[in-house]
Amino acid sequence: CPFVKVARPDDASSKRSENQSKHTGEHEGKAKNETVDSSIIEAKCPLGYDSRSFKLGPLSCVICQALLFESSKCVPCSHVFCKGCITRFNDCPLCGADIEKIEADNDLQKVVDRFIDGHARIKRSHASTDAEAAVSDNKPVIYEDVSLDRGAFLVHHAMRAFRARNIESAKSRLSLCVTDIREQLEASPNNPELCSQLGAVLGTLGDCCRAMGDGGSAITYFQESVDALSRLPTQDMEIIHTLCVSLNKIGDLKYYDGDLQASKSYYSRSLEYRHNAMKSHSDSPSLTLDVAVSLAKVADVDKGLGDE
């Protein structure tokens, strides 16, 4: 996953902890006023959305387990869920009460939206110069990052919603992520990590549109994913896989629309990328399987075109 680096805890934190323990051990027995090592305070979001776990908090929907989207309140029990989740139920999933009607909870949704925009952007310096941010023995406090990188934060909640079939919620979160990445790319147009992230998120947006039955928008997102990933070096197996998957998905949609020539064009491009990758990764079982899949797709289209 292109977001794995930002999603996992900072390796530097553990190194600082080790250095701190070593430093403390060396100076054990000395007076407190001679101690210069730092105390590390691991940040903890009071609502449970910290950088090491994704617990359910008060702003989560218990059905999709993601942050609320289009918050809707059940009447008369007043329990709140995502609109796309609760409309599938006749009884409240929490208390079992009959749902007489569903009302939008706009005030709560504003809180959720502000939380996403604020919490996911919070960054704190590891070196605090604030005199008040010190423990009682005058050791300087080092604050860990309070939250995940915004992209990883949004993608994680989008995937939770997608798995729970709350596609509108997933699409909304992914769209925010795409907007953020494109803003960053304006300052650094050829950044490979950003291009990789953009390609992956656009491909997932295509999956959302496909699940909603919007084939035209799905093709647009898949094509944008291909364009973003095509800028990158083709030595990276993960990039090749994501690129070829997007090409094949466009081919699938063209195939179902009856445009076999266009379908073959996309399948053939995917096959070409995978054949080229095989030259330097001939011992990769997964790549061998991918090549077989592409060959089968091209053969299926050829059969439909009468070119057996």
TrEMBL record:
GO cellular component: cytoplasm
Pfam families per the UniProt record, alphabetical: zf-C3HC4_3 (PF13920)
Sorted UniProt keywords: Metal-binding, Zinc, Zinc-finger
Region annotation Disordered: where it falls in the sequence: 1-33
Residues of the RING-type domain: 61-95
PROSITE patterns per the UniProt record, alphabetical: ZF_RING_1, ZF_RING_2
Gene Ontology MF term list: ubiquitin protein ligase activity; zinc ion binding
Keyword Zinc-finger among UniProt keywords: yes
Full protein name: Zinc ion binding protein
Bias type Basic and acidic residues, positions: 7-33
InterPro entries named in the record: TPR-like_helical_dom_sf, Znf_RING, Znf_RING/FYVE/PHD, Znf_RING_CS
Residues passing through the membrane, by range: none
GO biological process: protein ubiquitination
Gene3D superfamilies xrefs: Tetratricopeptide repeat domain (1.25.40.10), Zinc/RING finger domain, C3HC4 (zinc finger) (3.30.40.10)
SMART domains named among the record's database cross-references: RING
